[in-house]
Amino acid sequence: MPNVLYVTANPKPESQSLSLRIGREFIENYKKNNPGDTLTELDLYRDSIPLLDADVFQGWGILQKGGDFNGLSPQQQAKIGRLTQIVDQFVAHDKYIFVTPMWNFGFPPMIKAYVDAIVIAGKTFIFTDNGSVGLLKNKKMLHIIASGGTFSEGPLMHLDFNDRYFRELVGFLGITDYDRLWVEGAAKYPEKTEEILAVVLEEARVKALTF
Questions:
Q1: Is 211 helix (H, G, I), strand (E, B) or coil?
Q2: pLDDT exceeding 90 applies to what percent of the chain?
Q3: Which one in 21, 71, 138, 140 has a CA-CA gap of 20 to 30 Å to 168?
């Protein structure tokens, strides 16, 4: 049975987040339709996601030169050990659901920290004479996004650095089956928030049938 990884990056409680409400609706319906699948939830604002800092780069440098992991400092061991856990967890899953709000045309900083942990040569991609090759074949991803304005179409499309980034990222890693759910315009049209949400919640239920 497939292993499913549900990744969220929002410090708000679900009751106050449109993207998290949609994500939860999707996940609950997915579980009903696929009771044998294994679901892992990862909250990037709750779980430890080390930043790439001096400890990490110095530790990696030692290891690349043939150094022993046990010879690293306690801080280096803790950070590099956790980063290894994160990328190994990612590779071990077959399906991914990412839930991200759009902040200032992009995404929360913890998403970038997580991306830095999973884009690892030899783990999720390799370099070849003909360029890089993604190693995550035959996997799929759903990206659930919430934005106060409208960015999926119209005059502000060029300011979308959230969905566009993810499309390029997963393609680089070898994932070609990418889909999205976008709830947008709730801040622009507050009187229509519940109407907008209801439409996307129904889309989530439908997509959960075939994901």
A1: coil
A2: 88
A3: 21
Question: Any idea what the Cα angle at residue 115 is, between residues 91 and 133, rounded to 5°?
Answer: 60
β-pairing, 3-8 vs 95-101, is: parallel
* CATH number, residue 75: 3.40.50.360
Q: Is pTM, for the whole model, over 0.90?
A: yes
Closest CA to 69 of 78, 77, 61: 77
Residues spanned by the domain of 139:
3-210
The total number of structural domains that make up the chain? 1
What digits encode the pLDDT tens for the residues 64-78?
999 999 999 999 999
pLDDT at 173: 97
**Per residue in 158-183, pLDDT tens?**
988 999 999 999 999 999 999 999 99
- Listing from the earlier edge strand, what are the strands of the sheet with 95-101? 38-43, 3-8, 95-101, 140-147, 177-184
Environment class of 82 (CB within 10 Å of its CB; exposed 0-12, middle 13-18, buried 19+): middle
